[in-house]
């Protein structure tokens, strides 16, 4: 781990590995030291590093970076200070940027304001107007847990948000979220993100941009990414098969090839074909999803079980649920046991994940 100091004195932890042209992976909710313990992420880092020099860093308030920060200063300018500090400290004159979720708007703004330092952009999960990326009911339900129960948020984010249900991957992903920061900092990050809007800067981006989309029906609609690609002077959209809203998981080798080919050459040779001015995936959807949630018995929850599930998803404890509903704690536990069985949940985090998937 190396450490850079931003213009306002905030220390940013970062890592550099691999060889070749530089790809900087901009952070969202990050703890890069913990992310190396997630099997899928470690494999992705190692694969990207075979052909590129990869830079990872934790944003202010996250991971190895300073946790003592001004919670009122988490807009795009603050994130640009972090990125600029890392590039300057590492002696990187120019690089391609992977803007992932929260980092997408930062990547766009940096490419617009300092075009000579950006080779290419890869954007996934975020938007120029970040509120659009945070609007889906599933995302709002998950974010409501941040203050209520930080540990439960981490568990639900790993399963409901990212769909990583396998035991090892889900456990380490939840741990990476849980140790990334505190609930107070996360709340401030997400609150500030809702006000970030770099739409006016899209037209000034000179770099080639690849906009990637892989989302379930209840997550960010493809129209958000279509508008983003349309707004970039040299933007292309690729819709990836699958429904897990992350990269390097459902078809990791394909995602690695796609990103690597684009960063190295600006070409998209990984089985994509033009469609109405944008590039879309030519492959059929991959049936081999890595997550294997049990098929829910959606129609058989009683009204009381549905009410208990809603309160669990709100972050209430069993005692709080009992108090709200005027029933005994052991009755709450009985309802939980019944609804766990009906929806195929193994515990509270699974139930929250199911509730979020089926919200709105």
Written overview of the protein:
With 360 residues, the protein is of the alpha/beta class. The protein folds into 2 domains: 2-135 and 167-281, 3-Layer(aba) Sandwich (Rossmann fold); 298-344, Winged helix-like DNA-binding domain superfamily/Winged helix DNA-binding domain (Arc Repressor Mutant, subunit A, Orthogonal Bundle), CATH 1.10.10.10. It is built from 16 helices and 10 strands. The strands form 2 sheets. It has an 8-stranded mixed sheet with strand order 1-2-4-3-5-6-7-8, sandwiched between helices. Strands 9-10 form a two-stranded antiparallel ribbon. A hairpin with a 5-residue loop joins strand 1 (2-5) and strand 2. The longest helix is centred in the first third of the chain and has 15 residues, at 76-90. 48% of the residues are buried. Mean pLDDT is 83; it is low at 270-298.
